[in-house]
């Protein structure tokens, strides 16, 4: 229920609830202290009452009864709320104030009585009193004095304070609520500003950034994070835009070539030979486009793959030998030497179709870009933190300035040469994507053979795993 409310309302409610609790605690403490204070002053008054009583009583002739002059004491008199009694050690009355009537004041509690005792007691007729019992010799003869006053006036006083606090509570609560509402509004204002700024951001206008608040607080951190997300979004939108335009450009070229060829062919009657040749080159363009579309699909599948793939232990050396065997015929066409070497017992943690895709790509590129009679070597190797496959060739190599970019989509060092080889510029991008999906890396360097060295690093499978 509370979750449905806005943060401002929640903060205001929470803030005022906390203030209400604090005020309530304060009020309870104040009333308790007031009660204690009033009781203390009542006790002090009783001490004075007892002193006055003691001074105003005298023994009669036989020293068995007391006679008092209290009634005659000017100004003092006996208030209705003051009751006094003097008793002997057995609680037999020696003197009683007229205000008591037929009532008696309670006896001293036997065990606790140590000459002086304060106590709250209930008199006959339901009157609550504060009672002081004092053992005090009168005129040299032992006696016990009891003085009591009704507690009702001080209860009334506390009641008045309690009512005032109770009446002031709604106003205090309202003030707390308003204060919390105002503070929450102030605290949330930058958030509202950020929301307005973010509303301006669209796919076309991803360059907008949030203004960073001057304070280095939580909101500044949030704004910086949002700006980071926007920057990444902008970059990936840009890449996507570039990719779409490159892809359509790549598809347009073979389509235009095919269209031109077919148009020329249709302009006048041709021989069967000419038609066959036109169809042959159309087929070639179509197979190039099919390859391109397949690669685009592979790329989008890699981009899509959010779930981690299951990796298995694979015999790396065995798979390399298999691929070398499959592609050997292409190398033979160019009189190239294609070899496979390395540690036989290298087990990699990989996914077979993905690993195959990477290796075929690397070996195929090496064959394509290495001139006739060249040398290509695939080597498996165990490294400190995994396993490696190097694909080396003694071809032209890749100049350092191109090394970072050959993995970009559609990037080709020599466009015309690559196309002539049937390249699309997507192979290495796909291979690196596949390596990453297997939690590995793919990099290029200079080869000890003189050409390019592509190195695929993968995690090693546990021994026997
Ligand atoms: P392509 O389809 O053009 O081969 P790739 O992504 O596979 O696309 O390769 C990108 C570019 O990297 C190629 O156009 C080529 O210029 C260069 N390249 C790839 N492999 C090699 C290699 N073994 N030797 C030299 N250049 C290479």
Nutshell version of this structure?
The chain has 465 residues and is an alpha+beta fold.
Description:
- With 465 residues, the chain is an alpha+beta fold.
- The strands form three sheets. Strands 8, 9, 10, 11, 12, 13 and 14 form a seven-stranded mixed beta sheet that branches.
- It has helices spanning 7-55, 152-199, 218-267, 272-304, 316-333, 352-369, 400-403, 415-420, 427-437; strands spanning 57-59, 66-68, 82-87, 93-96, 116-123, 127-135, 144-150, 312-315, 337-342, 347-350, 375-383, 386-393, 441-446, 452-460.
- Helix 5 packs parallel to helix 6 (352-369).
- The two termini are 53 Å apart.
- A hairpin with a 6-residue loop joins strand 1 and strand 2 (66-68).
- It has three domains: 7-158, Beta-Lactamase (2-Layer Sandwich), CATH 3.30.450; 218-303, Signal transduction histidine kinase, dimerisation/phosphotransfer (DHp) domain (Helix Hairpins, Orthogonal Bundle), CATH 1.10.287; 312-458, Histidine kinase-like ATPase, C-terminal domain (Heat Shock Protein 90).
- The protein contains nine helices and 14 strands.
Question: Secondary-structure element order, as H and E?
Answer: HEEEEEEEHHHEHEEHEEHHHEE
Q: What best-fitting shape do the alpha-carbon axes yield?
A: rod-shaped
Structural class: alpha+beta
CATH topology of the largest domain, by name, is: Beta-Lactamase
């Amino acid at each position: 229920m509370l979750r449905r409310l806005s943060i401002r309302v929640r903060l205001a409610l929470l803030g005022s609830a906390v203030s209400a609790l604090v005020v309530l605690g304060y009020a309870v403490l104040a009333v308790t202290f007031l009660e204690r204070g009033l009781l203390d002053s009542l006790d002090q008054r009783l001490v004075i009452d007892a002193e006055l009583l003691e001074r105003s009583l005298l023994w009669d002739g036989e020293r068995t009864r007391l006679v008092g002059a209290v009634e005659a004491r000017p100004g003092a008199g006996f208030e209705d709320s003051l009751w006094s009694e003097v008793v002997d050690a057995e609680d037999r009355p020696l003197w009683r104030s007229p205000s008591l009537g037929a009532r008696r004041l309670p006896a001293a509690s036997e065990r606790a009585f140590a000459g002086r005792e304060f106590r709250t007691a209930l008199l006959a007729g339901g009157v609550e009193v504060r009672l002081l019992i004092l053992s005090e010799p009168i005129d040299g003869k032992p006696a016990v004095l009891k003085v009591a006053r009704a507690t009702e006036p001080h209860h009334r006083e506390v009641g008045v304070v309690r009512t005032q606090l109770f009446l002031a509570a709604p106003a205090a609560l309202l003030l707390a609520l308003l204060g919390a509402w105002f503070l929450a509004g102030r605290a949330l204002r930058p958030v509202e500003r950020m929301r307005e700024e973010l509303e301006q951001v669209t796919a076309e206008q991803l360059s907008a950034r949030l203004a960073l608040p001057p304070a280095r607080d939580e909101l500044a951190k949030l704004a910086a994070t949002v700006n980071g997300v926007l920057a990444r979004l902008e970059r990936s939108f840009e890449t996507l835009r570039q990719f779409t335009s490159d892809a359509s450009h790549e598809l347009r070229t073979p389509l235009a070539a095919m269209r031109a060829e077919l148009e020329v062919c249709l302009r006048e009657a041709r021989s069967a030979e000419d038609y066959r040749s036109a169809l042959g080159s159309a087929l070639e363009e179509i197979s190039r486009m099919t390859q391109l579309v397949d690669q685009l699909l592979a790329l989008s599948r890699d981009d899509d793959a959010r779930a981690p793939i299951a990796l298995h232990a694979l015999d790396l050396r065995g798979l390399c030998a298999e691929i070398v065997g499959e592609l050997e015929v292409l190398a033979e066409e160019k009189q190239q030497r294609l070899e496979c070497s390395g540690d036989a017992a290298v087990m990699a943690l990989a996914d077979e179709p993905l690993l195959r895709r990477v290796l075929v790509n690397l070996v195929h590129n090496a064959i394509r870009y290495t001139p006739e009679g060249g040398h290509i070597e695939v080597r498996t190797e165990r490294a400190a933190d995994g396993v490696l496959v190097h694909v080396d060739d003694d071809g032209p190599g890749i100049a350092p300035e191109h090394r970072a970019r050959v993995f970009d989509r559609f990037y080709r060092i020599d466009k015309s040469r690559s196309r002539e080889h049937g390249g699309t510029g997507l192979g290495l991008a796909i291979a690196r994507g596949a390596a990453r999906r297997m939690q590995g890396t793919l990099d290029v360097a200079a080869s000890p053979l003189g050409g390019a060295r592509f190195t695929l690093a993968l995690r090693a499978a546990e021994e026997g795993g």
